[in-house]
Input
Amino acid sequence: MSYRLEIEYDGTDFHGWQVQKTGRTVQGELEEVLGRFFKHRITAIAAGRTDAGVHAEGQVVHFHTGCFRPLDMAKRALNAQLPIDIHIKDIELVPMDFHARYRAHWRYYRYTLATELSALRRRYSWCPRFDYDFQRVMNATQDLKGRHDFFSFALSGSNVTNTICEVYHAGWQEQNSERILHIVANRFLRGMVRLILGTLIEIGRGRFEGRSIPKILAAKSSQSAGTSAPPQGLVLAKVGYEPWESLP
Output
């Protein structure tokens, strides 16, 4: 049988989602607890592999096991054993052919920029310590929408052959002392959102032309983009398994 989890985690103290030879990872912590609970080795597959320091509030994970456990009991028991920075929000049985990554139609990420320094929000937002023109940033964001080759916005060393992504939504929300980028696409390349955000900020600083996103995309070179924004402002907010419509 196959289980589907929706989980949230604070990525601050993790070296990302994926198990590595060294360093604490979300996948490693989750698989250890699942293995103890189901009494055999479990491989947990996620909808997206978040990088070190990146958070999630709607990560979707699936795994297979021959052991049935009542869902409410399983959720309580697993959460009791998981570290405090990982929490299972929902658990359900799904068909064996369900795949958290390959069945997903879209991923929704959120990046929070702070306009004022805050000791309490520093783990979940980035407050640039320089001036930038936010109107230029918002104008440039519109050029991300649509189907493009995002090779220029993939971290160097990424071993993917398909760099085509379709961005369904990209826009900003201002609330209190925060500016929040909402971006939804069918898929994202490794480091893509942080490179996009870093580039947008450099457009706002005047280091790139106001509408330079199309030129950067056309260049198909990571050297043409800006620097990557820090990870703490980024959250994997939701994964969708139905065709994209709109944000709620």
